Amino acid sequence: MSINLINLSKAKHTFFASLALALLSGACFAEGAVQWGYEGKVGPSNWGSLEKEFATCKVGQMQAPIDIPSKSATAVTAPITTKYKASAGEIINNGHTIQVALADGGSAMLGGVDYKILQLHFHTPAEEKIDGKGFPINAHLVHKSADGKLAVIGVLFNEGSENKSLKEVFANMPAKEGKVALKSNFDATSILPSSLAYYSYSGSLTTPPCSEGVSFYILKAPIELSKDQLNAFKKVFKMNARPLQPLNGRKITQGS
Ligand SMILES: [Zn+2]
Predict the structure, then answer these.
(1) CA gap 149, 170 in Å, rounded
(2) Pick the catalytic residue: 13, 96, 121, 143?
(3) CB atoms within 10 A of CB 78
(4) Which residues are registered as beta bridge partners of 87?
(5) N or C: which end of the chain has fewer CB within 10 A?
(6) CA–centroid distance for 199 within its chain
(7) Looking at residue 29, what is its pLDDT?
(8) DSSP letters along 111-169, please?
(9) Which pLDDT does position 33 carry in this prediction?
């Protein structure tokens, strides 16, 4: 395998370590660390071909994100209830987004199942749309149930007032791959709108390997962040949203 100079220019610590190892051993470098991104040859339209494990990105029929057709959301499902709590955590730049990883952030009841919150992260522009309407940025709150199922609460943002709950996170995002500890504990409740009314659909990870079986709960009510906060994120990630995926007859439900 040849060494890609474009990748080299975006190098990361782990990448250099792999490269050094590869050069020393003469081995095919960075095995298992496939480079993917949001543009060009490694962009979303090619994710499914980059590596065997990413095939679902191409052949999956229940992929995320989607443009939610609100009128088709007729079935009503249980309201979301949360038992989040302030938790220690880390602000991580993983090369694809800024993630706030929570040590012990509590849980949410989603569709009658208790899910523990693991982390939240951001996409710009927002990945989901509602009736074709887009938003400048969204947060995905990622949860896992005791039996290993994933559920994501999506929070949409409009540009407006400064988001005080995200002040520390957005002021301390690592510009390069890496992480810093949160100085103040973070409570996921603080970035929820007052109404937890939602649209729900069954989707996938929106990043490789695009695994399916992920339940999405997209909150109807957007919240706000300031233009400065949005620009601070865009300085680190200009664009990190997967394009919309076909609905393929999936049913949308909603709850209040
Ligand atoms: Zn996401």
Answers:
(1) 29
(2) 96
(3) 14
(4) 186
(5) N
(6) 17
(7) 40
(8) TTEEEEEEEEEEESS-S-EETTB--SEEEEEEEEETTS-EEEEEEEEEE-S--GGGHHH
(9) 67
pLDDT given at position 9? 41
User: pLDDT means per 10 residues in the chain (256 residues)?
Assistant: 41 42 37 81 96 97 98 92 98 98 98 97 98 98 98 98 97 97 98 98 98 98 98 97 97 96
What pLDDT is recorded for position 34?
78
Cα–Cα distance measured from residue 210 to residue 127, given in angstroms and rounded to the nearest whole number: 14
> What does the block give as tokens for 95?
């090369």
Ligand 1 geometric centre to CA of 112 (Å): 22
Task: Tell me the CA–centroid distance for residue 16 and ligand 1, in Å.
Answer: 27
Q: What residues does the ion ligand 1 have nearby, CB within 5 Å? A: 140, 206
What are the structural domains, with CATH classification, of the chain? 5-33 (no CATH), 59-255 (3.10.200.10)
Residues 6+ apart with CB under 8 A from 159: 136, 224, 225, 226, 227, 230
Length of the chain: 256
φ, ψ for residue 48, nearest 5 deg: -60, -20
What is the H or E stretch that residue 108 is in? strand 106-110
The whole-number pLDDT of residue 23 equals 38
- Beta-carbon contacts of 17 under 8 Å, excluding residues fewer than 6 positions away, are none
How far apart are the CA of 121 and the centre of ligand 1, in A? 6
**Rounded to the nearest whole angstrom, what is the distance from the C-alpha of residue 206 to the centroid of ligand 1?**
6
